[in-house]
Write a structure and sequence with these properties.
With 113 residues, the protein is mainly alpha-helical. Helix content is 73%, strand content 0%. The protein is built from 2 helices and no strands. The radius of gyration is 43 Å and the shape is elongated.
Amino acid sequence: MTAHTFQDTEETTNRLPRPLYAVAGVGDLARRRLERLPEQVGVLRERLAPRVRTFVSSAREVYGGLVARGEQVLDEARARRAAPAPEPRLRTEPRGIALVAEDATDEAADTRA
């Protein structure tokens, strides 16, 4: 690859260093681009306005849904906090008796064998 070198110290017809002309060229390019900016902003505004309206509408719907969901969650939490704690209930199935009966049946089968 061949490297290009610039002789920045070479004088031009006006006897100014070449980098100064490069800076002036960059400044002129920037000025021309900035002059077109208002036109480009207008075009972008026209193109994006419908999309922005759609986005804002969707964002409002999502926000409304989140607010409703949050209200429901807080209402349920308040209801749980306000409700008295349930009293412990006794089991209606006598598990202990069933286990004792199984053990007795197993012992009786062992003695018969």
